[in-house]
Amino acid sequence: MLHLHQKKSVPCEMDFITQYIEFTRKCVQWSQECLSIYRKQLLKACADGNLLVITCLLNQGWSTEIATKNRYTLLLIASAHGQAEAVELLLSRGANVHARQKNQLTALQIAQARRHTNVEKVLEEYFKKQTQEVPPQLKAVQPCF
Length: 145
What we know:
Helices cover 66% and strands 0% of the residues. By secondary structure, it is mostly helical. It has a single domain (9-131), classed as Serine Threonine Protein Phosphatase 5, Tetratricopeptide repeat (Alpha Horseshoe), CATH 1.25.40. The protein is elongated, with a radius of gyration of 26 Å.
């Protein structure tokens, strides 16, 4: 009797495993679709200057360095669209000001080419602030004798 019971449970267990694998596959697919939607929303928010969406997604852990297939990072997108406040926000959150897109242009070069003087000003002030900040001096180590 026990032997017959075991034979019947094997197909049942296989059905469960098959269903579990299919369920897991669909969850992964759904998760990837959601991530793609959030990624697109973040890229669009940078182009539109939607600070609320940018802040919300960055607070959820999205990187300032995600990029399009042409290597436009969030900062490059905001610069290209003249979104000075978004540029400030991204810089404050650690965006790489030296990032270059596919044609090797930086955020400043893109802003200059598109005549976004508001963005140029923000970036130039950022560079100026970076060069003014002097690293703290190392204190001389006093001998222990």
